[in-house]
Write a structure and sequence with these properties.
Blueprint: E1 2-5, E2 8-11, E3 16-19, E4 22-24, H1 28-40, E5 45-46, H2 47-55, H3 62-76, E6 86-89, E7 93-96, E8 101-103, H4 148-151, H5 178-192, H6 196-209, H7 214-227, H8 230-243, H9 249-262, H10 266-279, H11 284-296, H12 300-312, H13 320-334, H14 337-350, H15 354-370, H16 374-390, H17 394-410, H18 414-431, H19 434-450, H20 454-471, H21 474-491, H22 494-510, H23 514-530, H24 534-550, H25 554-570, H26 574-591, H27 594-611, H28 614-630, H29 634-650, H30 654-662, H31 679-695, H32 699-715, H33 719-735, H34 739-755, H35 759-775, H36 779-795, H37 799-811, H38 817-831, H39 834-843, H40 847-858
Antiparallel strand pairs: 1-2, 1-8, 2-3, 3-4, 5-7, 6-7
Helix pairs in contact: 1-2, 1-3, 5-6, 6-7, 7-8, 8-9, 9-10, 10-11, 11-12, 11-13, 12-13, 13-14, 14-15, 15-16, 15-17, 17-18, 18-19, 19-20, 19-21, 20-21, 21-22, 21-23, 22-23, 23-24, 23-25, 24-25, 25-26, 25-27, 26-27, 27-28, 28-29, 29-30, 29-31, 30-31, 31-32, 32-33, 33-34, 33-35, 34-35, 35-36, ...
Length: 872
């Protein structure tokens, strides 16, 4: 993405300004100043805001700011007297006044031909993690398991109708006519119950009786905004603003801030609320609205300061439970589950009525679930159920259904999740919460994507997009566009998926929602990664990590780093990938994100496998498996267990792999005692079982399972992973002794993978090709290919691939091959690749071959019938 104005172009990712004569040199702080001005254009940024945002509260003066403004004007050829770009507001600040256009990088143009998705780099079809890449035919490089799937596991709340907001927007200008006042008060009571339909009806009745009551106009606007009908809310806000001049300045500021919020003018909203809070520092409602605006603007540090100021107030107007819930909201924005739990526990202790208690308990349940404390989360939900049995609280029931639905979705209980979301949508409709109903239906569609009902999901999402456009709710529209993009990715419609994702990102940018932009960039990064466009994927992940970091969202930053690590690893930047994953793991541990810790350990375990550190890889896999088992994430448990089983096969631990695979017996899923795995997970299980079968000589069983895995991946639109299954089947053909057919298949697969720029997978296909050539006696061709593969491995290093390459090279040495193969065996055994070590010894025809044969047979591994030079 780039910003364009007149003849200038600004790259926010690279922080580079380009003019008609090329790159424009600017000091780093000056470039950041330009970025701040452009991002808020055409809003005014005050001096202190710019100093905080660009220089980060360092000990600098406004003179430094003025100097950078002069440097910018000189670079742009601008003037103070007749500004074209930067306008000065005397003693206030600056604003960028030129028309700014958002353009996408040329590499992301929809007109660019898509490259086939890779099998070996299998970056996944977000938000559902894709299946494990094939072994040994495909290097296990790990799909983007930390990506959008967990970004969607966020506590659901409506954008505006949340437990932290006050009841009455404007207290002055209430209706005076008795019946109008009675209806107005009844509307407030309905608003207190969050029955937006009843509230809207009463405020409309009040306004028919007394059309000029400003408080009624403001209350109706607020109700419509909470319902998600932003267009109608803006009309009533404008009507209220026309008469607000007769009210006190505090009321004017409150209504002006609300109007700015509706227009997504975050800086203006915060400025109005700061003035209001400064005007009356005992106005707790103003302070809480200010904190909420700062959180939404990604200024979490400022929000924390505001909440500290509120805590210091000694006034009976302060509702401690409401303040605690705002702290929970702040913790949620940072991804800090532990802090969220503490704040919601405080809110429960301070609650004065059942609605507050229910809200606090639901927050606790979310935090506990994300912390992996499943039993405690269920206890909290049980207490919510007790409250709802005693006192009907439809809004709490709505949030309860959304929570249950999300947890059931993450647990793989898709039918139950759909039922929950459908119930939530029904309640939202009854309460007049149109936006909340749209969210529930969007979540239903998302579950259908996960179950493979792509057409039904896409149709539902198309209808929601039209509805949200009519309502004028851009943030929910952007979220729905994002899910629609995911649906199209699963449908295999890459261009439409990209267009929807880009539209979602542009919508988030337009309304200043940097958290939404970051999440969408993660999805787009996964989309480009699936196409083998790893540099573009990395660009999106890097920008997402930066945005999350600026927002103070440690978990979000760690999510983006984990995905970026996969992209780096796939392009040979192993050390950088490891550093990113270690940093992400530290971040996840800090916020207590059990599921994310498990997934990151899984990532690192795969990296350890690639680096040849199998002891560490096994330890990480065990922690990952324990973590997902602890939180009941059955679907992802299938993924980890399948990969873990394959790791044990590499170590020739056939009994251990068999035990892991037996634990994945899906027979108990038929009676509903366990959720069925997604097609992607089932493909991973089938692939692991196929490898086990091939190793133990059940070749026909292996063929059936590899074929089933290919069909599952094809149905799920996992184009890259399908190539992995094809390579599994090609190796099986070679194992059966049909070398000509295996050679042809390997040659074609290598061609496709090279075109897709999937170096690791292309190397695996090359290894199979070299082995089949050698087995047919084409030693010269095999040797030349081995030399080529060795150079390719320098760009995409992998310890197992290197050892397999050494095995083929050693097998080509004729009479001298025995000693060379024993050297390969020693190197493989040293890092834990016992299966490869035993096979190298078996091929050596030395005195060690007999012992190797005995060990292989004792473990039930096929020995007879294997073409000698093939490095299985």
């Amino acid at each position: 993405m780039r910003y364009q104005f007149d003849e200038f172009e600004f790259d926010p990712g690279g922080l580079q300004l380009t003019g008609p004569d090329g790159d424009v040199p600017l000091r780093p702080m000056t470039v950041r100043l330009l970025l701040a001005l452009i991002e808020e254009a055409p809003q005014l940024l005050r001096h202190d805001e710019l100093l905080d945002r660009v220089w980060g509260r360092q000990a600098v003066t406004q003179g430094v700011l003025a100097q950078s403004i002069r440097e910018l004007r000189q670079a742009l050829g601008d003037s103070v007297q007749k500004p074209r770009y930067i306008e000065t507001k005397h003693r206030l600040g600056y604003r960028f006044i030129a028309e700014v256009r958002v353009s996408l990088d040329q590499a992301m143009s929809p007109a660019e031909p898509a490259v086939a998705a890779s099998a070996g780099v299998a970056l996944g079809n977000p938000p559902r993690p894709a299946s494990t890449a094939a072994w040994p035919g495909i290097v296990v490089v790990l799909v983007l398991l930390i990506g959008a799937a967990l970004l969607w596991l966020q506590p659901w709340t409506s954008r505006d109708a949340n437990p932290t907001r006050a009841l009455e927007l404007v207290q002055g200008g209430r209706p005076e006519e008795p019946q109008a006042l009675a209806w107005y008060q009844q509307g407030l009571e309905a608003l207190r119950r969050r029955d937006l339909g009843a509230a809207k009806q009463r405020f409309e009745q009040s306004l028919k009786r007394e059309p000029d009551a400003i408080a009624s106009m403001a209350a109706l606007a607020d109700t419509l905004a909470q319902a998600g009908d932003r267009n109608a809310a803006q009309q009533w806000t404008e009507a209220a603003l026309r008469g607000v001049g007769s009210l006190p300045r505090s009321e004017q500021l409150r209504l002006e801030a609300f109007a700015a919020r509706l227009d997504y003018r975050r800086t203006d909203e915060i400025g109005k609320l700061q003035a209001l809070f400064q005007l009356d520092q005992g106005d707790v409602d103003a302070g809480l609205r200010l904190a909420a605006a700062q959180i939404d603007a990604g200024r979490s540090a400022d929000a924390a300061v505001t909440l500290d100021r509120i805590d210091a107030l000694d006034t009976p107007a302060k509702d401690p439970a409401r303040v605690a819930m705002m702290r929970a909201k702040l913790a949620t924005s940072r991804g800090d589950h532990s802090a969220r739990l503490r704040a919601s526990q405080q809110a429960e202790a301070m609650a004065t009525h059942d609605q507050q208690r229910a809200d606090a308990l639901l927050e606790q349940a979310w935090a506990l679930a994300l912390l992996g404390q499943t039993d405690a989360a269920n206890d909290a939900l049980g207490r919510v159920d007790e409250l709802l049995e005693k006192t009907p609280l439809p809004p709490a029931s709505l949030r309860r259904h959304m929570l249950y639905g999300t947890l059931q979705r993450e647990d793989g209980k898709y039918d139950e999740a759909i039922d929950r979301f459908e119930s939530a949508a029904t309640i939202a409709d009854q309460l007049g919460q149109r936006s909340a109903a749209a969210v529930a239906r969007r979540e239903m569609a998302y579950v259908r994507v996960m179950t493979g009902e792509i057409e039904l999901a896409a149709t539902s999402l198309d209808s929601l997009i039209v509805e949200l456009e009519e309502m004028g709710d851009p943030r929910e529209l952007a979220s729905t566009l994002d899910v629609a993009s995911v649906a199209q990715q699963h449908a295999g419609n890459v261009e439409k998926a990209k267009a929807l994702g880009i539209r979602a990102m542009e919508t988030y940018i337009r309304v200043g929602d940097t958290a939404g932009e970051a999440a969408t960039r993660v999805n787009l990064g996964m989309l480009f990664g699936n196409q083998g466009r790893l540099e573009e994927a990395a660009d999106h992940f890097e920008r997402a990590a930066t945005l999350f970091g600026e927002n103070g969202n440690l978990r979000g930053k760690s999510v983006a780093q984990s995905n970026l690590a996969v992209a780096y690893g796939a392009t040979g930047r192993a050390e950088a990938a490891r550093a990113l994953n270690e940093s992400a793991l530290e971040g996840f541990r800090e916020v207590g994100a059990i599921a994310d810790i498990a997934r990151t350990q899984f990532n690192l375990g795969v990296q350890d496998r690639r680096a040849g550190n199998l002891v560490s890889a096994e330890s990480r896999m065990r922690e990952a498996l324990d973590g997902v088992t602890r939180i009941g994430a059955h679907d992802f448990r299938h993924q980890i267990a399948a990969t873990f089983a394959e790791l044990l096969l590499l170590r020739a631990d056939i009994a251990g792999a068999q035990a892991i695979l037996a634990s994945l017996d899906t027979s108990d899923e038929a009676d509903g005692s366990a959720p069925s795995p997604t097609p992607a997970r089932l493909a991973a299980i089938e692939t692991a079982r196929g490898r086990y079968a091939a190793l133990t000589g059940a070749l026909e069983t292996a063929r059936t399972q590899f074929t089933h895995a290919r069909e599952l991946r094809s149905t799920a639109g996992m184009t890259g992973a399908v190539l992995g299954s094809e390579l599994d089947l090609a190796e099986l053909v070679a194992q059966r002794g049909n070398l000509v057919a295996a050679e042809q298949a390997a040659r074609e697969l290598r061609r496709q993978l090279l075109e897709a720029k999937d170096a690791p997978a292309a190397i695996q296909a090359g290894l199979l090709l070299a082995g089949t050539l050698a087995a047919q006696g084409f030693s010269g061709n095999a040797s030349r290919l081995v030399d080529q593969l060795e150079s390719e491995l320098e760009a995409a290093p992998d310890r197992l691939s290197s050892l397999r390459l050494d095995l083929v090279r050693a097998a080509l040495r004729g009479e001298q091959r025995g000693e060379a193969l024993l050297q390969v065996a020693a190197q493989a055994r040293e890092v834990g690749f016992e299966l490869l070590a035993l096979r190298a010894e078996l091929l050596s025809n030395t005195t060690d071959a007999g012992e190797a044969r005995s060990k292989l047979e004792q473990r039930g591994i096929l020995v007879e019938g294997m073409p000698p030079p093939l490095p299985y």
